[in-house]
Design goal:
CATH superfamily of one domain: MetI-like
Distance between the termini: 50 Å
Radius of gyration: 25 Å
Helix content: over 70%
Number of helices: 26
Strand order of the largest sheet: 1-2
Order of helices and strands: HHHEHHHHHHHHHHEHHHHHHHHHHHHH
Largest sheet: 2 strands, parallel
Low-confidence stretches: 262-274
Strand content: under 5%
CATH topology of one domain: MetI-like fold
CATH class of one domain: Mainly Alpha
Number of strands: 2
Shape: globular
């Protein structure tokens, strides 16, 4: 008896394999011959690229850990003025990408910038440039990334802190620990997996960042990849550097896994879970808690927003010169189209995994969701490399016309790379929703005569509706902020708020970059507020 053809397995396998192609391409390209530029780079700037990337990574991780866990601890365990406001307001830092924060930092503190103007208006004429600090180079990049990325640690740490039992706090008291000692000995270790997960996301975003490091003229592995492709038009050269960055990222995961191999992060406490009681702070403690959270909120969101708004008001001609409607439509079009594609194929892939339960498919699916860990610039170059190889090796050998124009400089190519980059967000989000659907529901549907397709469309999709809505919001937010992929693969004269801001800033026209940056922040803020309110609603339910 022949085995019945399983279309769901085939579809799920094909989707997962497609997403894995860039990873395979990057590593296979490592051994290809490249131009003499690579040998020159290896003997000159490669060590600088690696050291700069490592320095940036370590400093950003330290500062995001302090800000993220500090604010999360305060709003989770204590009551103080505006503590409920800071729960969601601190997430708004996501609306400000590092490269836009870099523009704000320079515009405010640079010679004759906003800080100079404020001091002149308040104190009269003076040589204030001598006393105004300058945030350039590595320090500027570290600050930009810290205030833009700390929310990853804040969100996951806060989630972990919220679900810690009052019993843990009581345990510290019974042991005679001070509040300070309890935090470091009990509360923080219990939240370690969540904190590490947040720091891992920060690490990936830091290593992937292009706009901020390029603006501050810092040579990192990411800028090296971009420049080798744009300046030297050498894909093998770009992939060789990309492989170093990938090894960098994978090494971080290995180190982290080894470091927690024998560790224990939960406590078996008699009495079960006990709802945590928030402590109401008074006096100086309340004041300092408020000041710390407000400082982080102000610096991460209000400061860049105000700077962009100031430049927009001061130079209104840039507002009128900007094609706001076109840029809005382009940005939202990419976000909506990519979300539809991602959700559609992620639904199919998840359902294929659910109904087949195949080990090979499970392994391939696990590999496919690693795309988010790969910087956008690597994925863009890997995609170009694969299409060029496929075109030269397969298409032309069969006598067909070249397909490069279909994928290079096109919306199709852009959406496909977005798909690979953010596939893990959609896949994992839908997977989490599927875990809430008991397999008995499927079996009951089959007994009622439902086919797998009908079960999928009539039962699973409606049940997953809320999860799908949240995924659309999160994916849209990521695409609105995305720069290197859009910059490399966008069609000619197709601009978004992100690319327009970058092009203006790269030409030292910060006042012109302010307007698209402002709109990007505002649009992203709307998505973040909707998402945060949605999550809070779900939590309350």
């Amino acid at each position: 008896m022949t085995k019945k053809f399983n279309i769901w397995f085939v579809l799920s396998f094909t989707i997962s394999l497609f997403v894995c192609i860039p990873i395979i391409t990057v590593f296979s390209s490592f051994f290809q011959n490249t131009s003499n530029y690579y040998e020159v780079l290896k003997d000159t700037f490669l060590i600088e690229y690696i050291l700069n990337s490592l320095t940036l990574l370590i400093l950003v991780l330290i500062f995001t850990f302090i800000l993220g866990t500090g604010t999360a601890y305060l709003v989770s365990f204590f009551k103080f003025p505006l503590s409920n406001f800071f729960k969601w307001a601190l997430i708004l830092s996501f609306a400000v990408p590092p490269y836009i924060y870099a523009y704000s930092l320079t515009a405010f503190f640079d010679n004759y910038g906003t800080a100079f103007t404020i001091l002149t208006n308040l104190l009269g004429e003076g040589e204030y440039n001598k006393i105004i600090p300058k945030f350039n180079g590595m320090f500027g990049a570290v600050l930009s990334m810290t205030f833009s990325l700390f929310a990853y640690v804040f969100i996951l740490s806060r989630a972990s802190f919220l679900y810690q039992s009052q019993n843990l706090i009581d345990l510290g008291k019974n042991l005679g620990f001070s509040r300070f000692k309890s935090f470091f000995k009990i509360i923080l270790p219990a939240a370690r997996p969540a904190i590490v997960a947040g720091l891992s996301l920060v690490a990936m975003e830091t290593l992937a960042e292009f706009g901020a490091v390029d603006f501050f003229s810092i040579n990192t592995l990411t800028t090296g990849i971009y420049n080798s492709w744009i300046a030297f038009d050498d894909l093998a050269f770009a992939n060789r550097i990309a492989s170093f960055l990938l090894l960098f990222i994978f090494s971080l995961f290995i180190i982290e896994n080894l470091s927690r191999k024998k560790a224990k992060y939960h406590f078996n406490i008699k009495g079960g879970f006990k709802q945590k009681e928030k402590i109401k702070l008074k006096g100086t403690k309340s004041f300092f808690a408020f000041v710390f959270c407000f400082f982080v909120f102000f610096m991460s969101f209000i400061f860049p927003l105000s700077q962009m708004l100031y430049w927009t008001i001061k130079f209104p001609e840039n507002l009128f010169d900007l094609q706001i409607v076109t840029l809005s439509l382009n940005t939202l079009y990419l976000a909506l189209l990519s979300s539809i594609v991602l959700i559609s194929f992620s639904l199919i892939s998840n359902y294929g995994n659910r109904v087949t339960n195949n080990k090979t498919l499970n392994i391939l699916s696990t590999m496919s969701i690693s795309g988010y860990a790969i910087p956008g610039v690597i994925l863009a170059v890997a995609f170009i490399t694969f299409i060029a190889w496929f075109d030269n090796t397969i298409i032309k050998s069969l006598g067909f016309l070249s397909i490069k124009k279909i994928f290079f400089g096109s919306i199709l190519g852009l959406v496909l790379v977005y798909f690979i980059r953010f596939y893990s967000l959609a896949f994992n989000g839908i997977k989490s929703g599927y875990e809430k659907i008991n397999i008995a529901v499927d079996e009951s549907a089959y007994m009622l005569g439902y086919s797998k397709r009908k079960t999928f469309l009539k039962i699973h999709v409606p049940f997953l509706r809320n999860s799908l809505l949240l995924i659309v919001i999160l994916i849209s937010l990521e695409i609105i902020r995305e720069l290197p992929i859009t910059l490399i693969l966008r069609p000619f004269n197709f601009e978004t708020f992100a690319t327009t801001a970058y092009v203006s800033a790269s030409e030292d026209l910060l006042e012109a970059a302010a307007v698209p940056s402002l709109f990007l922040i505002l649009i992203a803020s709307i998505f973040i507020i909707i998402a945060s309110k949605y999550i809070l609603r779900e939590h309350n339910e």
